[in-house]
Design brief:
globular; single chain; 2 domains; 16% strand; alpha/beta; Rossmann fold; 6-stranded parallel beta sheet; HAD-like_hydrolase_sf; 11 helices; 288 residues; 3-stranded antiparallel beta sheet
């Protein structure tokens, strides 16, 4: 557990929720600071997932440790095609569907509308080939975001919580990562933004995952991600709990400003609840 000298539990006055952050960081919204001992922190947060039936996890930066390769590769792909994109310009696009990013910068560079589709396809193909090589070659350092991640997922499943993944990766990249990292052994469902009309911040991936996992109440769904777009996706979907993690793209203030209910260092910081039975499992079957 975190040392009491390094952590503060802060309560956003407007939201009535909690977030754990490092002391000394600037804050974007008003907080009422309360310093808790490790024991009290465990008590205050141990029921966070008690009413959750499904957790939808982002991949890169949230559950997958890949060092920001996906964004660096997309940036390189655009530069190879003559689009000058700075790190600062790329940052707000973390978590977005890659075609949307390419189209934005192509239009900004003055690409004629009639040529946009061809340019998006060309840059997109360069990106997919490069990311496939970076992720799946023998020297790839792609790994779990935490050494105990699979064990943590199994504990959640033992507690009755379903596990799902959503991503802005193309389907083949997502499936390759799911298999490479062993997520296929714990996932109840997964989906790519390429399988729905719009990716994040639209809520469609979460709603499709609810359908696949037969979870009826969106208030019993938790969305976890490292980017502002993940938080916006969870809030737009109506999730009962939206969690930001500091292991990837965006910082504490950005995640809280986007509407996160809880912010923690990494996904495994969320406490595993005691075994519970989902409401739909307690209902009698509809015989009408």
């Amino acid at each position: 557990m975190w040392a009491v000298s390094r952590r503060v539990l802060r309560l956003p006055q407007a939201l009535g929720q909690c977030a754990v952050r490092q002391i000394g960081q600037s804050q974007a919204v008003p907080y009422q600071p309360i310093t808790l001992s490790p024991t009290m922190l465990r008590k205050a947060t141990r029921t966070l997932l008690n009413d959750i039936d499904l957790i939808v996890y982002d991949m890169a930066g949230t559950t997958v440790q890949e060092g920001g390769i996906v964004y660096k590769t997309l940036q390189s792909a655009m530069r190879e095609d003559g689009l000058q994109v700075s790190d600062e310009e790329m940052h707000p696009w973390h978590g977005a569907k890659k075609e949307a990013v390419i189209e934005h910068f192509a239009l900004k560079a003055g690409t004629p509308p009639a040529d946009i589709a061809e340019r998006v396809t060309r840059v997109g193909e360069w990106f997919v080939n490069a990311i496939d090589e970076a992720y799946f070659n023998e020297a790839s350092a792609i790994d779990h975001i935490d050494i105990g991640l699979l064990g943590y997922f199994r504990q959640l499943k033992d507690a009755g919580i379903k596990i799902a993944f959503d991503t802005g990766y193309p389907e083949n990249i997502q499936k390759g990562l799911i298999k490479r990292l062993g997520f296929d052994k714990v996932a109840d469902a997964y989906i790519s933004s390429y399988q729905v009309a719009e990716g994040r911040p639209y809520p469609y991936m979460i709603h499709h995952l609810m359908e696949q996992t037969k979870v009826m109440n969106v208030k019993r769904v938790c969305k976890v991600g490292d980017s502002v777009r993940d938080i916006e996706e969870g809030r737009n979907a109506g999730c009962g709990l939206v969690v930001g993690v500091l292991s990837g793209a965006d910082d504490f203030d950005e995640l809280m400003k986007a509407g996160a209910h809880v912010v923690c260092e990494r996904v495994t910081d969320l406490p595993v609840p005691r075994r519970h039975v989902a409401p739909d499992e307690r209902r009698l079957p509809d015989l009408s």
